[in-house]
Every structure is written in C-alpha cells, then in structure tokens.
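Notes from hallway chat w/ T.B., transcribed later so I don't forget. T.B. wanted the structure written out for a chain they're using in a teaching module, and asked if we could keep both sequence and structure tokens in one place. Agreed to drop them here.
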Amino acid sequence: MTRPLQDESRRQDHRRENGTGGGVEIKTAALKEVAPAQAARLSFQPKDLVWQLNLDQIEAQSGRILSKVTGLASAAGTSTQPFDTGNVLYSKLRPYLNKVVCPDSPGIATTELVPLRPHPKKLDRQYLTYYLRSPEFVTWISNEVAGAKMPRVTMKVFWDHEIPLPPLAEQKRIAAILDAADALRTKRREALAQLDALLQSTFLTLFDDPVSNPMGWEMAAMGSQLKVIGGYAFKSEDFQETGSPVIRISNLNKDSIDLDGCARIPKAKIGKGEKFRIIAGDTLIAMSGATTGKLGLVPDDLNDEWYLNQRVGAFRIPDISRIDREYLRALLASPFYQRHVLNLAGGAAQPNISGKQLESAEIPLPPLPLQQKFAAIVESVERQKTTQRAHLAELDALFAALQHRAFRGEL
C-alpha cells in the first residue's frame, strides 16, 4: 500500500511531540477506505437549471470557483456526474494545478473531477480538502501521473495513498485553524475585487451603458477601429513540455495570462501558426464554450513568443489616436458588453462567437481625452492592486506553512 511518506525519516512527519520527548504516531488510512469515489444520488429533470462545473471555472491552487455557471440539465452532456455537499471534488487532470473543490451546493461536474465522499464519522470534509490542497501532497501526487501531454493522476496510487487521520475532533480543529487563515486571504481577494468594482463604477460614471449609449457617443463598428484576430488550430500531438506557450481559454485571466498548465509547442512545429503570434498589449477573449467573453490581458512588457490557440481571439489597436487600450479593456469587461457578446453568440448553453461577429459589433467612441482620464484612474488603481497582491502573496506563504505543519501533527 502506497504511503505519502516512503521511509522512516518521512514517517516521522506523521508524529507529534507529546510533551515528554516521545512521539505519538498519527494513524493513517487509505483514501479508498475513508473517502471512496461516490457521486451524488441525484436525478435532475431535463429542464432543471443546474450548476455545471468544468475545470476552467476553478482557480488553480485555491479551488475557488471563478464563475458559477448554471444551465439546463439536458445540456450537461454525457461525460458528467452529479455531486452534492457531501463530496470533495478532486481534479485528476494536471494535479499540479491543485484544483480541489469543496462544493457548497449540488450540481453536475465533468468526469475529470473525482467525487470523493469522506466517511462522516472518520474524515472531516474540510480537513480532506485542505489535505489534498497541501503543498506536500500536491508535490507527491504530481509525480504519480500518466501521460505527457495531458497528465492524469494514476488513480490506483491515489486510492492507496494514506492520509494522516487524527481523531475527528482534531481534524475539525485543524480545519478551523486553516479556515481562519484562509479567511484572511479571502479578505485580500475581496479588497482586490472592490478595486475592480471601483473601476467598473468609474467607467459607468464617465461613459454609462456602452450598449444603449445614453450619452450619445459616436458609434463605430469594432472592425473599423480594431484588428480582431482568431486563433490557430495547433495539433495537440505537437505539444511538448518545452517550447513557446500556446494560449488557450483555460489560460485567460482578466488581469493577466496564467501560464500554469499551458500547452507548449517547439519552434519546428509552429508552421502556419506563426501568423497567430500574440504581441504586447493585446486583449484576448474566449470565443466558445461556457466562458465565452472571458478576457485575458497580455502584459505590456511581453518579450516571449506566445501564440493564440483556436477558440481564443485577440483585439489589437492599430490607431491609438482613436481608442485607448484601458478604455477598450474596461468596455469589453463591462457586464453590459459581456451580455452583448453572449447575445451575439446566440445565448446557447455552449455558445460560439466568430471574429466577423465581433468586428460587426458597434462600440461607442467617447472623446479621447475622456478615455485618457479613465486610463489615468486605472493606472492609480492598478498601483493599489499591486500592493494588495503583495500582501496576498505573504498570506499565501503563511497559509502554505500552516498546511505543512498541520499534517505533520505540529499545530
């Protein structure tokens, strides 16, 4: 049976001092015994609106739900399974991304998420969640995968893995400590979200609804002001562990591009894809799937060779005398325009939008000085966000240290 610690020196990590210099070994149990795979026994009607959870809706490393997407149960597809609040959902694909969810309501999930069901009298659900997210476990399980291009956990090894299992009351105490530390991180994230909300409010004050355009700004087809570039269908068999990043929908993040788990392609395999190279300052957009309209901002100091994958588009500004980039990004991110994009895509459960549809969409063009005023406010807020991110990074480091101690019996 595979243990998380393979020799006596590492087994000592499961011991805690008892105050007299001795050590009390913490009991362990195989995951398959205390948290077997068991989906929820739920039955949804075809017309029921149900939470439909896919991997791209889960934030890497934190397990936070980025967008809670609901849709008709009939549109969920066959490669899905129901879950409820008794489950812990573990992503077996690319385990280094650390996507573990402790759901707060029932729904339907992709089969890439394993529905663990911890035994309520043996294993606390929150304790299990934190354990699976712990740096030590993630490092260990990331080496227990099969497949180079789409690495997945070797499930026999996963189920045989033994989790430290102190008494249930102790598990709950540990989970409560980690909950408190995690709450501090949540407050920092909320502060960042409030700064984002401030920018949205400022945008509305200066420009109002960009779709109905009550201020009567000049309107122009997006294609007349911007270059809208589609992605390229790179062959998945050409992807390797090293090479140039190929940006897919899962890599889009409104503040940046997340390269965790990014597909990479060697120079010799780029071929016609060279025409789809991303440049500094581009704004990327998801063009299909449940997250159609999702944005990703390419940094201004980009000096690497990144490429657009299919289903991802890029907005590029050829004439900065007509439209400011920060105004454009805020316009595209506004809830009004996001709804407009979904309407263009047809509003289906799995929408798709084409470059031609985006080019034909009309956008307001307020006076450039007003756009630049907004850009200056964005710059000021971004400085504050940088400070908040630094504080969040410190809390993340503290939280990781607490996790490390918790499962060594040192809390």
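Follow-up for T.B.: Residues 1-23 have pLDDT under 50 and may be disordered. Might be a good example for the class.
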